[in-house]
């Protein structure tokens, strides 16, 4: 088992470290863990970090006493003057503690970017927003490929120098199209699939295969207006607010665990087309938040719900 370096007395005259903007100088990591709730869990994690001479930049936790579950996420920097075992070494060192509390955990380099494949059909606004945000490194993600059942988005995607795959789909070709998607997931080592207004329903098998690794944006404030044409359903209902919901994909359409939601006020003067236009920004906001929080290891699946440490 990897051992923390022995505590050393500070050197007589420590070398001045290049502390840019006052931040500690060293390798940054993110640790996240969830486990059965009991006293002392935060101390278990912070004691481990102290043993490794880490500076904590951000620590968020949630004690779900109702469900008896504990959630914690910590962003930390190792002091450059001490050993840096890398993410693998830190995982090996923390594993016995995680086992001790029956926890599920991971430790990753804070600089790591999740490899994301985006799926889209005809409406490009959510895709466009994610491409822009990823280009600005706002998402903790690298978009490695885009798949669509229509050719419309090819020029936009290839402008971003990202591979585009047109995979047409019909009821008869759905099994082959889903197999092609999984080939691309494998080929590009994809960690997250994002349905950015992809309007084809995943089979139960594909939903299970990508469970916890596929996020959809539904263009309504769920649980209202599930299924097709939610803005038309909202217009018929005479709503005064439209919204969008980013959720994990499950076999039950639009029923997956909710990650992020966003709303926008409307009024009686909005027809269906105006509701669609008003809703676009809410879709982009909810989806980009969900993708960023997932890629930054801030989302914990907790039964049918999520815990978001943001
Ligand atoms: N297994 C899942 N697949 C998909 C989900 C999901 O939650 N689980 N979300 C949809 C996106 N979506 C709403 O956000 C949605 C897309 C399409 C339809 C729909 O009914 N489409 C066609 C039928 C297409 C098909 O049979 O594949 C239709 O209009 O009749 C409803 C909601 C993405 N996939």
UniProtKB/TrEMBL annotation:
Pro residues bias: start-end ranges: 1-17
User: Where do the ACT domain residues begin and end?
Assistant: 30-108
Report the EC number(s), separated by commas if there are several: 3.5.1.10
Question: Could you tell me which pathway this protein works in?
Answer: Purine metabolism; IMP biosynthesis via de novo pathway; formate from 10-formyl-5,6,7,8-tetrahydrofolate: step 1/1
Q: Where is this region: Disordered?
A: 1-23
Q: Which GO terms describe its molecular function?
A: formyltetrahydrofolate deformylase activity
Reaction(s) catalysed by this chain, per the record, are: (6R)-10-formyltetrahydrofolate + H2O = (6S)-5,6,7,8-tetrahydrofolate + formate + H(+)
Q: Which InterPro entries match?
A: ACT-like_dom_sf (IPR045865), ACT_dom (IPR002912), Formyl-FH4-Hydrolase_C (IPR041729), Formyl_transf_N (IPR002376), Formyl_transf_N_sf (IPR036477), PurU (IPR004810), PurU_ACT (IPR044074)
According to its UniProt entry, this protein's organism is: Ornithinimicrobium faecis
Keyword vocabulary terms for this entry = Hydrolase, One-carbon metabolism, Purine biosynthesis
Q: Output this protein's name.
A: Formyltetrahydrofolate deformylase
Give the residues annotated as active site.
254
- Give the domain of life: Bacteria
């Amino acid at each position: 088992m990897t051992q923390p370096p022995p505590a050393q007395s500070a050197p007589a005259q420590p070398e001045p470290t290049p502390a840019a903007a006052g931040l500690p100088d060293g390798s940054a990591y993110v640790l996240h863990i969830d486990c059965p709730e009991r006293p002392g869990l935060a101390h278990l994690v912070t004691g481990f970090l102290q043993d490794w001479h880490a500076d904590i930049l951000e620590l968020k936790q949630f004690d779900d006493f109702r469900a008896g579950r504990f959630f914690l996420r910590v962003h930390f920097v190792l002091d450059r003057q001490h050993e840096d075992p890398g993410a693998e070494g830190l995982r090996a060192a923390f594993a016995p503690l995680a086992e001790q509390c029956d926890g599920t955990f991971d430790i990753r380099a804070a600089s790591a970017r999740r490899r994301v494949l985006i799926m889209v059909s005809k409406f490009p606004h959510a895709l466009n927003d994610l491409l822009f945000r990823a280009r600005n490194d706002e998402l903790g993600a690298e978009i490695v490929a885009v798949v669509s059942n229509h050719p419309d988005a090819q020029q936009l995607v290839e402008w971003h120098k990202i591979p585009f795959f047109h995979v047409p789909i019909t009821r008869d070709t759905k099994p082959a199209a889903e197999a092609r998607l999984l080939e691309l997931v494998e080929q590009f080592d994809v960690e997250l699939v994002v349905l950015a207004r992809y309007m084809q329903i995943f089979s139960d098998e594909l939903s299970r295969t990508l469970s916890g690794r596929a996020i959809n944006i539904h263009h309504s404030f769920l649980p209202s207006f599930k299924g097709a044409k939610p803005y038309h359903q909202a217009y018929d209902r005479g709503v005064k607010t439209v919204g969008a919901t980013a959720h994990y994909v499950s076999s039950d359409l639009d029923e997956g665990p909710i990650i992020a939601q966003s709303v926008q006020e409307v009024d009686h003067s909005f027809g269906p087309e105006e509701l669609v236009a008003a809703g676009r920004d809410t879709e982009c906001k909810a989806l980009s938040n969900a993708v960023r929080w997932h890629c930054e290891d801030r989302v914990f699946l907790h039964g049918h719900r999520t815990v978001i440490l943001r």
